[in-house]
Design a protein that fits this description.
Blueprint lengths: L10 E5 L6 E8 L3 E6 L10 E8 L2 E9 L14 E5 L2 E3 L1 E2 L7 H4 L2 E2 L1
Amino acid sequence: MHTAIGPFTLEFWKEGRTHERRSGLRGTVPEFGEVVLTAPLPLKHTPGSVVSEVRGPSIPTAVFETRGIHTEATGLPTLNGSTLRVGDAMVYLRRNRFGLTLRARALHFR
């Protein structure tokens, strides 16, 4: 299945103070309606992990999450120790950062 997407613009937004601060991008995509990317979610709601999510009325919620000791030093999710969920399904990520070719180093979704 392939869907052609028309041009759209996402605007930066920010709300809240200190520990409850949320920010990201939001806008209207003609084919899908209002889309909101929140990156990262407040740490109060996701202790021990860094989580970003995409939501919209006509798309499944996509959640990208990083867990591990390195999350204390990063502000956004990284590929190390990450998981991706789209709706209720888990998307398996695999990469070989030491691969010799671009294809070998690519991020593979299954």
